[in-house]
Structure formats: C-alpha cells, structure tokens
Amino acid sequence: MATEPRTSAAVPGKNLPYEASIPLAPFLLNPLIVVLLLLALWWRWPALERHIDGQDFGNLQLLKQDLPIVLLLAGLSFLFSRLGQAYAQFRLGHRPPRLVRQIIAGAVWLIGTGIAVGTLWDVPVGSLMTTSGLMVAVIGIALKNMISDLVNGITLPVKVGDWVEVAGMKGRVVEISWRATKLLHDQTSITIPNTFFSAQPIRNFSPETGYYIDTVRIVLPLTVTAYQAERILVGAAQQIEAIARLPNVPEARIIRFTDSGVEWELRFPVPDGRLGSAMRHQVQRAMLRDLYYSGIELPAAHVQLQRVADFTAPEREEMNFLSHIDLFGTLTHDELEQVCGRMRARLIQAGTPVVRQGDAGDSLFIVQEGLLVATIGANGSGTEVGRIRPGQFFGEMSLLTGAARSATVSPLVDSKVYEVDRDVIAPILQDRPEIAALMSRVLAERQLANAPKLASSTLMVAERDSLAQQILGHITALFRLPPKPPREAMI
Questions:
Q1: What average pLDDT does range 139-166 have in this prediction?
Q2: pTM for this entry
Q3: Are residues 220 and 136 in the same domain?
Q4: At 4, is the pLDDT very low, low, confident or very high (cuts 50, 70, 90)?
Q5: Count of CB atoms within 10 A of residue 26's CB?
Q6: Rounded to whole angstroms, how far apart are CA atoms 287 and 291?
C-alpha cells in the first residue's frame, strides 16, 4: 500500500542545482591509479611475502596468500563502477541521478564479491543462490514496498532539474533516491514515495522546446464580441516581455457559454517552470488592467437589475476612459465631453501601421484595447523602441507641436484606438491657454521617462522645466496662443 507524500520545510542553502555533467578525466583517473598501484603490489607480492613468512597470522594465513588478489578485485570493482557511471553520463548527456549511480556501483561490487568468493575460496555461488531462494522470497515479501519504490524510481519519466506537478504538488526535482523523489518549491521540500509518484499523472514543465503552454480562464459578458475579447486577452499576454520573446503566439479560445457570460481560455507560453506562478499573475494583472480601460465589468455571480434603455452609457464609458489619460487630466468635464464627442474610434488589424516614421501628422491616438509596437529605422522595420498598451497614447508631439512622426507604430494584435485631431484640441487651448503649459509639462515628463536617468533629481527637475518650456513654445506658435500664459499654470 503506497504511503502518502510528506512535506517538510527546506533548509536554507540546500536548493540543490541540476546535476550537470562532471569532467570524466579526473573522475576516472583516481580509480585507474589505484588499480595500477594494486597491480604493482600483486606483481611484487612474492618478494614481500618472503619478508613476512616468519610471522604467524593464525586464521588469517589464507587471507595473507590471497590479499593482493582481493585488493586487485576491489580496485577493479571501483574502476568498473566509475566506468559504468561515465557511460551513463555519456548516454544521458548529464550526470546520472544518485539512484542510478548507486545501482551501478552496487551491481559491480556484487559481481566482484561473487567472483572473489567463488574463485578464491571455492564457495558454490550458484548453489548458494538456489538454496537461498526461500529466504529471498521471505525477504522480498517483507521488503515489498521498498523493492517497489526501487523499481519505480529507476523507471520514473523525470530527471533531476525537471519542473513537475504530481497529485496537485508542483516543484523542481532535486533528488531521486531508492525510496522517494524529492521536490523543492518556494523553499519547501516535498518527499514523494516513488511508487506513489509513478502511479499519478505527471505534468512535466521542462519540455525540449524550451517552453510549455499555460492557461488562464475568465468569463466575459455576452456583450463583449469575439474580436474584442481576443484583442484584450491576447494583447494582455503579449505585454509580458518573457512571453513576447517566445516563438509561440498567445491565443484565446471560447470554452463554453454560461448563464453569466462566455467562458474564455487564454493560452500562452511560459519559458520556465519556476516562472509559472509569476507569469500567471502578470498575465491576469494585465487582463484586469485592460478590461478596466475597455470599460468591461466581469459578470457577477448574482442577478443584477438594470434599466433596459440607457443611451448615455457608452458616452459615460468613453468619458471615464479619457479622464484617466494623464495628458487630459487638466480638462474640465465640459471639455472632456467636447473631446469625446469628436474623437473617432478605429479598429486596426495586426501588422497594419497606424503612423509611419517621418510622415506629417495632426492627430494623436489613445489605445483602449490590444497592443502596439513602436519601431524606428528604414520602412519601420528597424529597432523596437517600445510597446504601447491600453491607457497609453502616441502621436502627441505631432498633434501639439507639428513635428513629424518620430516612429512607426503598428499593432501586434488587432487593436482599438481613439484618434483625436488637432481641430478638436485647438478650440480648448484657445479658450484656456494655460492648459498648454500643463500639457507641455506632461509631455516633458513623458520624454524624460523614456530617456536615460539623469545624475540627480535637481538636474532632472531643471531638465524637465527646460524641455517643458521648449515644448510650450512650439505649442504656442502652432496654435497662435498668447505668448505668456499665466505663471501659476507652470507651478
């Protein structure tokens, strides 16, 4: 009957590393030197024996005669056990687990002992094994669980260093012994008997491809379209740098329809088993963030009563979304309504550039769903300089200063953006010129955030104020604003 696994706290500093290959030359040199010395002893033994013939060894007289042969067989057993371990390392590509090393050494020493007993002292080894069959059977029954653990330990489809999940327990394999396999996770050691381990379904998170596929499920309202759900979920996964570097692209699938909404499954690659929990947290965090900017509320577990006709709800969602954009943080409610009423929603397919580097432009774009990438270089195929996620914007310098587009921006996944033209912002700036100073400060802080850090906070403040004044000058000239806005707007 298999015993249940036991869990114990791991000792700090005992996080055993993966057993990498060891140099074979020094590994085999020591037993080879020992064998050569024992061969020399065996060759010179007759001369040495003449010096000790006068001494009485009593019952050890027979051992005195066979001592060099016994020592030589022991040395050969030592050498052949090392050769067996070296061959196992050659076949596996890494150092074999400790259990395999112990089995190889035990088998070699058992054979060596049998040869010594059978040839030197004329013990009938074959007859001894036959007549002791009953004893072997009794011992086998008594040690049934131990033998079962030993056999299953040899055939386990995992190796030291693999990240696995067995019976809901997840961790890195740090040791495979005669009786049990030890996992380590979050500084906690989990010891699982080999019989129990092999009887359970095993999930191995260390595939040959270098990554495995993890999943996150979420229920979205029925009002969310399939295209919108794919933009949000896939875009959230690709915001994680470790996931974006892998060749496998995240994908979203519909699992089933429920009374509260549609259950979706997001599949994304994870590069390493030890990062699984952290990757899931980052993906789910990005999902919640993007759902918030999209104005989507997750279905509640209870029935909600609401008015059937509410024609202003979409406008309120756009107002709420726009109020969280730092560039428009100084606008009043009426000014936000003015911008919301005239900005245009655009759905852009993945790979289609929204703006191209060097082109003229008079609008900015605010990302609500999806994920976009900014590149600089010939034809926009050069160096990636950043990624733009929901709640962020681009094109503001072209809108407010008339500068050419500084980068090519393209969606990595199908995305939804809002476009705000210069004609929308111009009346607001002309009515309240002090807004230009506030916007210039936001743009200066944004540009400094993307630049290398300055030596001190004092230099950073001075650089920000200087850059803000330059941007304000361009805005004032482009929109023909009064040359000196109120000073309190710069405070």
A1: 72
A2: 0.61
A3: no
A4: very low
A5: 8
A6: 6
